[in-house]
Amino acid sequence: MRLISSAITIFLIPPRKKPPNKPARKKQKKRGIDPQVTETISQILSYALKNQEDFIITYEINIEDGEREEIHVLTGKLITPCMLGTLKNRVELQESEGSRRHTMEWK
Predict the structure, then answer these.
(1) Any bridge partners for residue 70, and if so which?
(2) Distance CA 42, CA 57 (A)
(3) Sequence spans of domains, the chain
(4) Residue 60 DSSP symbol
(5) How do 68-76 and 54-61 pair as beta strands?
(6) What angle do CA 56, 43, 101 make, to 5 degrees?
(7) Contact assessment for residue 36 and residue 67, using Cβ atoms and an 8 Å cutoff
(8) What is the number of other CB atoms lying within 10 angstroms of the CB of residue 34?
C-alpha cells in the first residue's frame, strides 16, 4: 500500500471592509483533510485490524517552523507489552495537555 500525497493550493483573498456598526468576527483557521488521505488511512487500519497488527499514526514536525510535514502510518507487530505500558503512562501524564487514550474490548 502506498500513501497518496496531494498538493495544496492557497488563494490569497483581500479582507472585506467591516460594516460600520458590526464588530469584526474572529476568523478560525480551518484545516481540511484530503479525502484520499482519509480513505487510504482507513484502508490501512482495516488491514491492520484484520491481521491483528498494531496501527500507529503520527506526524513528522518541521523543527524550523513547527508545521507538520509528513504523516507516518506504521503497521505490524510493533508494540511490546512494556512499550504499551510506557505509552499509556505518558498519555496519562499529558492529559492536561490534551492527550487521550481510548480502550475497548477486542472481539
Answers:
(1) 60
(2) 11
(3) 35-95
(4) E
(5) antiparallel
(6) 35
(7) no
(8) 13
Beta bridge partners of 71: 59
Cα–Cα dist 37/44, whole Å: 11
What is the residue whose three cell numbers read 505518558? 90
Single-letter residue type at 35:
P
Contact 41/57 with Cβ under 8 angstroms?
A: yes
76 touches 54 (CB < 8 A):
yes
Question: Is the pTM here over 0.70, yes or no?
Answer: no
Residues 16-37 have pLDDT tens digits of 444 556 555 555 555 677 888 8
CA atoms within 13 A on the CB side of 52: 2
**Nearest 5°: phi and psi at 100?**
-135, 150
Find, among 46, 106, 48, 51, the residue nearest to 75 by Cα.
Answer: 48
Q: How many CB atoms lie within 10 A of CB 3?
A: 13
The residue behind cell 479525502 is 35
Residue labelled with grid coordinates 460600520: 20
The closest of 72, 74, 47, 42 to 59, measured between CA atoms, is: 72
